[in-house]
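Comment thread on ticket #2218

A.B. wrote:
> Attaching the input chain for the structure job we discussed in standup.
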Amino acid sequence: PLANPCMGSLSNTEGKRYSCHHTVRNAPPQQHVLDAIRRTEWKPKVDALTCSTSPHEHNGPVTRLVLSQDQKFFVSASHDGTCKVFETQQILNSSGDLKSCLTIGDSNVGVAIRPRINDITIIENSHSVASGKSDGSVEVWRVDMVSKDVQLPLQAHNTAQMSATSKPKVSRVSGYEMIRKVKPHEGEILAVSHFNTDSASIVTYASQQGIHTWDLRSDKEPFSLSMRPEMGYITSMAVGNDRNWIVAGTRRGYLALWDIRFQKLVKVWQHSNVAPVNRLGTSFAALSYDNSPKPYVVMGCGLNESAVFDISSGKCRHCFRVLDPSLSYVDKSSLPTQCTSLPKLNEIHLSSDLEKRVKGVHKTMESVIDTRVAPPQPCIQSFGGRVGSSGTNYLVTGGTDGYLRYWDFSDPSKCFTISGLRYSQPRPAYESLEAASGKIILCRQLPVTKPDEIASATLPKLNKRGVVRPENRHRDAIMDVKKLEYPMKGFISCSRDGLIKFWR
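C.D. wrote:
> Ran it. Output below, let me know if you need it in another format.
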């Protein structure tokens, strides 16, 4: 058997090692104070851009972001074939520029022939990262960190909370080391995830032929999960919070649920929109409709909407939908049915009948033709936030329309647009609709006023407004969003325009 690789241990502000899966019994007092501050209610501000990368940081679309569990660094993955490591501490001292400190990629290969990086994930309880590439390979590499003591200000030494023996440390990225690499020769790697068990450290990755696993502590594949070809290729994947189940979404809107303990396909649904499942997330919580915690799946699927589904019953509990600008001034009672109804997960009963499989292939060809003929529609590509049993539940979504929106589960008046509005564009209006099994929150995004629609009396005022501050919004589709809690609360977003931005 292979020796257990050194994945890089996590450390607190004093440099002591700890595990994210177990509570540290002898945690210092200031650590408890820091945790209490992190748990306080917080909201992002409107158009509060703190720092951003330069256009030359990445030479292609930035598709994924991953954040280390101790909040020391985050990693970006791009279609230019490189991963870049950014230290989070620079956000406090930055003058507006966000610069990478490490680049992982083959510099001897040109950008045109360098394989794209489709997805990345953090190896739990470590400083290691797993990346999936378009050439069919999965790489696991470790970010090396060095620590040094920090001289505290005079007032910090006088506080009663500081221990006499504790010395805070600051960590810096010093390099990286490639640990292992696997290439199953099954086409592009479409999604990557990782989870720990009591006896294994398993990397799950989705190829064009199904889901495979890779135990970092062994040289054998623990198990594999197959997907019916008529369902389409996998576009997103997520592991349950208890590490006992896994869900995967496909290009044709199917959602498959497996029991990891028995490697068995339990259920298959198809989203009522029959649209690609762009992003998945899992949570185990008790929402307002529940008496006890239940497993939930958050889906980004359909025409600019995201929804929270109860995976035990297949019912939708919350739906966050952006209306088309042509429906912005339509009364709520006059809206189309597809705008005022909850999305559904239609359960699919699989059969080995050859005739049904042929029909499935025929429908697949029809959907391919419809996709090519129909114009591209806005959709949700990423989301982040909190779906839990306590505190404020919210989502921050980013999509192909370039907007970052904050959705509150309980009150539509607390929802707002973080970024994406033009200067001449009015603020959107949010409203809610009650349904039988859940709630719908609608966003009425008002269109930008055209020059010929502006009254002639206000044109001289617009021409004399002087210098206008440049817009902070993303110029293209937002591909990923990650929440940062330390050293500053905020959200990190990446876009197809190649930029990474931090919003507080």
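A.B. wrote:
> Thanks. Noting for the ticket: Helices lie at 29-39, 90-93, 154-157, 337-340, 354-373, 459-463.
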